[in-house]
Write a structure and sequence with these properties.
Blueprint (H helix, E strand, L loop, with lengths): L1 E6 L8 H17 L2 E6 L5 E6 L2 E6 L11 E6 L3 H15 L4 E6 L3
Antiparallel strand pairs: 1-5, 1-6, 2-5, 3-4
Length: 107
């Protein structure tokens, strides 16, 4: 089962300890074959919206930047519970904030 874990921005600035712990966590998941992809996302982005025949394009940043996605990890695990446990471990490393886990369907 594949899951996409997204993380919202945090007010906490990363330090050397965070980078070291996250590096070990990423190495562990990569070696286990669980981590398929990870990355950070630009804060602004572009919103493409369609309504009927009209398609509008709006450049960010947007008013609700706290709700934006700051980063992601695509993982492959045996169960939803395992995905939740990996998210718990991630949150313990990075501290306060929010992450969302969604199952990825398809090939």
């Amino acid at each position: 089962m594949r899951y996409l874990m997204t993380t919202r921005p945090s007010d906490t600035a990363p330090d050397e300890k965070l980078y070291a712990e996250m590096g070990r966590f990423i190495e562990e998941l990569t070696a286990a074959g669980s981590l398929l992809a990870t990355g950070g996302l630009e804060p602004g982005g572009v919103l493409v919206r369609s309504a009927g025949e009209e398609i509008t394009v709006t450049d960010g940043p947007f008013a609700e930047a706290k709700e934006a996605v700051a980063g992601f990890a695509l993982i492959e695990v045996r169960s939803k519970e395992e995905a939740i446990e990996l998210a718990r471990r991630f949150r313990r490393i990075v501290g306060d904030g929010e992450s969302v886990i969604q199952q990825v369907y398809g090939p």
